[in-house]
């Protein structure tokens, strides 16, 4: 990236085509930042706080790459010169966290008046949110949305040179800008966007309104990105999309998700392939076949249930029934017996009766998920569900939520117990946050295991005996040359 920026004529006009236009503004910002660093006789620091899903995390890696390309340094323990919150709005609690953080950052800005505070992401696509920020948090300097993440350098140049606030939110953007800089959180694994947006319009979900309609990346761009990642030490990729099963829609080439996976598997040096998130209504027999026969695709499927009631699923606009879901689970497990199944479940959707909730408990009891993300329904303004009658009382939701959690935990304990005592291949990911003497790694089926190891082994594959199942995770022992290392 430095070579690209070094060769840009800063006295020329900005190019029109992307990504050349953004390279130009990165170079212009880099010139400004270099002069500012010289004036202050210190580095300029930035901090990005990411809320929400893995798509947001991937966006933050790109934003980090742009900021580092223009000369900012990432530092958690310094008063930052640039603060960016990459926001989520899937649930109300995510919005409240952002407002709380803004209240705290205002105090820091008093210590560094030239600090630039920026907000981007899904929350910024809601007009009422932006209006509130302009009114109640007027110290925010930059607001942009999900469709113009790639324009960070251009927007920053406007702020740095004109010293004015910038608010730019696109209603939609059909442009997929490739080859922007990116800084990975992990050296050995990485998320890779294969598509953006969602066309499903589940009645509770704000995502299609803030992320836009589905658009897929070209296969050759995805392959080239992964090949480059592998050359730089990545052994595992997570293919990302709001609904990866829809991959291929809108492309000139006739291709589906199962075919894309087959092509990615051919990449030499790539050890593991994961994906997030498929939709049950689109989970094809071809995809199951490809997973079954693959040596690289992880034996894990995150299959959002949301509700076990066919009536509620219809109200949610999910396009499958309780029976459809259970049949799909049986099909997946029959073909891939050692698969790990995880899910999302919403409690308290408008109109949910005791009978509806018992249907959900019934599915959880029958499937016995390896783990589940359980959520209390969050009313999102602008979605059809927000206007539905028969909103469920909070005390009823809480009682149901507690019962669901117990059932999920019971199923997870049962599934994890099945592997106790076996030896599994594990990718060591990090030092355990609770016990620094332990490392934590992940099995193919996405289960986590904690065990003693040297931290210089992070990013390596090892064989680990699963000594003790503890609900959602294991304690284990590395097996090396037939010798246990504790």
What is the approximate shape? globular
State the major sheet: 6 strands, parallel
Summarize model confidence as the mean pLDDT: 94
The residue ranges in which pLDDT falls below 50 over 5 or more consecutive positions are 481-486
Structure annotation, total helices: 14
Strand line-up in the sheet with most strands: 2-1-3-4-5-6
Percent helix: 25-40%
- Total strands: the figure is 20
Percent of residues in β-strands: 15-25%
Q: What structural category characterises the helix and strand content?
A: alpha/beta
Q: How many angstroms does the end-to-end distance come to? A: 43 Å
Task: Kindly provide the radius of gyration, computed on alpha-carbon positions and rounded to a whole number of angstroms.
Answer: 24 Å
Describe this structure in words.
This protein starts with a helix and ends with a strand. The radius of gyration is 24 Å and the shape is globular. It is of the alpha/beta class and 486 residues long. The strands form 5 sheets. Strands 2-1-3-4-5-6 form a 6-stranded parallel beta sheet, with helices on both faces. Strands 15-16-17-19-18 form a 5-stranded mixed β-barrel. Strand 5, helix 6 (152-162) and strand 6 form a beta-alpha-beta unit. Helix content is 37%, strand content 21%. Mean pLDDT is 94; it is low at 481-486. The chain contains 14 helices and 20 strands.
């Amino acid at each position: 990236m430095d070579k690209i920026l070094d060769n840009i004529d800063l006295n020329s006009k900005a190019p029109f085509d992307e990504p050349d236009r953004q390279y130009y503004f990165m170079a212009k910002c880099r010139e400004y930042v270099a002069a500012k660093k010289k004036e202050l006789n210190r580095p300029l620091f930035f901090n990005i706080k990411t809320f929400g899903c893995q798509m947001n995390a991937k966006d933050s890696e790109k934003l980090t790459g742009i900021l580092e390309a223009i000369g900012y340094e990432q530092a958690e323990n310094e008063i930052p010169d640039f603060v960016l919150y990459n926001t989520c709005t899937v649930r109300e609690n995510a919005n409240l966290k952002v407002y709380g953080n803004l209240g705290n950052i205002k105090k820091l800005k008093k210590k560094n008046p030239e600090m630039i505070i920026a907000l981007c992401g899904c929350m910024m696509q809601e007009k009422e949110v932006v209006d509130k920020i302009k009114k109640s948090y007027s110290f925010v300097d930059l607001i942009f949305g999900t469709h113009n993440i790639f324009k960070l350098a251009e927007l920053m140049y406007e702020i740095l040179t004109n010293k004015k606030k910038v608010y730019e939110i696109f209603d939609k953007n059909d442009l997929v800008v490739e080859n922007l800089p990116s800084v990975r959180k992990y050296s050995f694994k990485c998320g890779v966007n294969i598509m953006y947006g969602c066309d499903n319009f589940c009645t509770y979900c704000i995502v299609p309104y803030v992320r836009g309609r589905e658009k897929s990346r070209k296969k050759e761009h995805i392959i080239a990105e992964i090949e480059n990642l592998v050359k730089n030490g990545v052994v595992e990729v997570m293919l990302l999309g709001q609904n990866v099963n829809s991959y291929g829609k809108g492309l000139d080439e006739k291709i589906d998700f199962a075919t894309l996976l087959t092509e990615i598997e051919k990449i030499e040096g790539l050890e593991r392939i994961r994906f997030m998130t498929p939709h049950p209504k689109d989970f094809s027999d071809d995809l199951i076949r490809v997973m079954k026969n693959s040596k690289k695709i992880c034996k894990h499927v995150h299959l959002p249930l949301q509700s076990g009631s066919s009536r509620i699923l219809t109200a949610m606009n999910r396009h499958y029934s309780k029976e459809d879901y259970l049949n799909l689970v049986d099909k997946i497990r029959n073909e891939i017996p050692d698969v790990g199944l995880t899910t999302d479940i919403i409690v308290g959707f408008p109109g949910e009766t005791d009978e509806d909730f018992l249907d959900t408990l019934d599915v959880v009891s029958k499937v016995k998920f390896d783990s589940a993300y359980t959520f209390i329904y969050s009313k999102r303004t602008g979605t059809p569900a927000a206007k539905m009658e028969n909103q469920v009382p909070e005390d009823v939701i809480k009682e149901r939520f507690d019962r669901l959690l117990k059932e999920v935990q019971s199923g997870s304990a049962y599934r994890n117990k099945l592997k106790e005592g076996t030896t599994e291949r594990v990718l060591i990911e990090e030092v355990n946050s609770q016990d620094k003497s332990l490392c934590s790694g992940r099995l193919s089926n996405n289960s986590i295991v904690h065990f003693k190891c040297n931290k210089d082994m992070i990013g390596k594959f090892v064989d680990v005996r699963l000594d003790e199942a503890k609900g959602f995770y294991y304690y284990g022992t590395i097996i090396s040359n037939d010798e246990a290392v504790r």
